[in-house]
């Protein structure tokens, strides 16, 4: 996906009705020794980092349970859409653990430190409407009889992104992600570098031409 220029948006969904991702198999984990557990969690953290660093926008379609590592997977995505009946939580403390695949870092960046601490300390599960009210998800929708309401809303969101200039979207994601980790002056410099890369693109020229000619732009990603 990272190197396929035809890929414009990635949507993560589950093929299991009622479950987005239920997290680690604790029965399997119980049979691991300490070194195996550490190796497992490092690999999981690496996977989430790979997802977070995909150059194109990513959307998690949460149509059911997203618990522990399942919510960490959703947090590694750029955008999240949830069914109102979905259940989400970093429940690790209820099992004698703490989030180990990015949850302690990505959740506070998403909802703020106070709410993140409360959710992690209590291991509480929240539904899609609660998640929306605290900014954990971008959209919440009533669940459909097919059980894929969040996926359908995620597709609609993806279709809003698709007509936009691909390189500009990629640079926008890069500028946001890198800029959020530094002070605002450094962030402005990062934005400037990303903007400079976008200036010579054909898509920028096409966008300007389409505006002058009062027609929809035809972006090619070049």
TrEMBL record:
Q: Which residues cross the membrane?
A: none
Claim: Lyase is one of the keywords in the record: yes
GO process terms (BP): fatty acid beta-oxidation
Instruction: Give the Gene Ontology MF terms in alphabetical order.
Output: enoyl-CoA hydratase activity
Query: What keywords sit in the KW lines?
Result: Lyase
Gene Ontology CC: one annotated term: mitochondrion
Is Lyase among this UniProt entry's keywords?
yes
- Matching PANTHER family, A to Z? ENOYL-COA HYDRATASE DOMAIN-CONTAINING PROTEIN 2, MITOCHONDRIAL, ENOYL-COA HYDRATASE-RELATED
Protein family per UniProt: Belongs to the enoyl-CoA hydratase/isomerase family.
Q: What is this protein called?
A: ECHD2 protein
């Amino acid at each position: 996906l990272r190197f396929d220029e035809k890929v414009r948006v990635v949507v993560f969904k589950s093929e299991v009705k009622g479950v987005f991702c239920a997290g680690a198999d604790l029965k399997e984990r119980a049979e691991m020794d300490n070194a195996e557990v550490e190796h497992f969690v490092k690999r999981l953290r690496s996977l989430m980092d790979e997802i977070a660093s995909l150059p194109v926008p990513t959307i998690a379609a949460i149509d059911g349970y997203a618990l522990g590592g399942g919510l960490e997977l959703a947090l590694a995505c750029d955008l999240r859409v949830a069914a109102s009946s979905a259940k989400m939580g970093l429940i690790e403390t209820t099992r004698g653990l703490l989030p180990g695949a990015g949850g302690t870092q990505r959740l506070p960046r998403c909802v703020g430190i106070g709410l993140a601490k409360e959710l992690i300390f209590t291991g509480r599960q929240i539904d899609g409407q609660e998640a929306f009210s605290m900014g954990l998800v971008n959209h919440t929708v009533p669940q459909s009889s097919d059980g894929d309401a969040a996926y359908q809303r995620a597709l609609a969101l993806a279709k809003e992104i698709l007509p936009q200039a691909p390189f500009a979207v990629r640079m926008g994601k890069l500028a946001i992600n890198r800029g959020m980790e530094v002070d605002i002056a450094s962030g402005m410099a990062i934005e400037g570098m990303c903007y400079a890369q976008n200036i010579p693109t054909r898509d920028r020229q096409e966008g300007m031409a389409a505006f002058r000619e009062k027609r929809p732009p035809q972006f090619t990603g070049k």
